[in-house]
Amino acid sequence: MEDTLIYNYSGASSLVKNGALEELFLAQYSEIHKNTDTSCFFWGNVGQPFMLARCLITLSHIVRSSFSLSPFQMALLKDPIVTAGNGRLRFEGFSHCAGVYARIDVMPEGLDGEFPENGTTNVDFNQPMITALGSIRPNEKIMLSVGEKEVGLYKNEEKIIERKVPLPIKWIKGLGTVQVYLSESEKRHSFNRIQTQQLFRAMPKGVIKTDYYLIVRGNKPIFSPVKSAESVCIGGLHRLRLLEPLLPYIDSMQVFPHTHGQSATWQLYMGNIRFCFSLSRESWRGFSGEGALLDSLISEISDEWIDALDKYAYANQSFHPAKLALEENISFEKSENVTARLAAMGLLGYDLDNREFFYRRLPFKLSRIIGLNPRIKNAEKLIEDGKIEMLNNSKERTEARVVGNGVHHTVIIGKERERCTCEWFSKYQGERGPCKHILAVKKLVNI
Prior knowledge:
The chain has 447 residues and is an alpha+beta fold.
């Protein structure tokens, strides 16, 4: 069970009816506590309860879906993560295969309540909770509380007790990677409700195994199997059908492709609620295995720096790499490494509209993150076993020979490019992060 972390909620989430008022309590789980005296992160009214309920149900469907795993693996249901801070509520989660990422942002204008403390927790989405959310009507009012409150779901004299929930380690890895990909994405298209609905109605049926491209002809967006200039590449196009339940309610949709094609993100706008939906390059590739953060995880950054930046981001609820570089008189490259490292630790998410990182601490120990990636473990073992022979190490060029299984690999690291003669690098050319040989050489010479 190395790929799962088992934990208990102290109580179940609940939707409690009190006359005409419904109160939603979201149960909390955390390995770490920023403020142990505060068990509530938000308490108040939601401006669009029906719309939020529809979004939460859609997020739950995404979390329960998989596009590359067996039915047995899919049977392990997972729970989304909720962050309260900076006047906003954010709910986020992955498909079980970690190839689809989704986040609901409830903006300050859509909330009427108090934030006693900023914090992040896991949400217990049991089936009775989904049923209760589905029963919320358009004109009903609910009070939302994020944090540990009452135990149980009280609806028609029914009570839901606590349960064990497995959390995949790939979520923790994927949450860091997808934030970096979001920060490297740019808005390409904006469509109104009618354009969006027409686009989805014309989507090919069934499971789509080949790449499709989003193109615009005149004023009409279409999905085409033929690539053209300024088109957006989409792998596993059928995964977009997870958004169909929300399409009748949206005001508009924007599309944000990654600058190097590693992801495609679709953001739906519904009044004071935004729904961010990001797809990995192909349906069989999860964000957790992309390796976008490996370079930052081997960089030498002191614990004092991490602790100071953690406190700074927690106090401001946002993080600006360029501002950090200017204020601390460090290179932009180092500030980017620090940012990626903080994202890998679960301290940062990324807001596409505001073009900035927001603070959200995952409810897991920071020491858990670095040991999760097998490439880093394998790179460290190469160093420990003395398998690296340095041939050249200068400012312009680093060259090393790495002993493999019956073969020697050559690693060359220059200012503009890094290369390795191993099969992994030959296959992916660095698109899925560096191989273990490049990582080992970089760590050894502290590049």
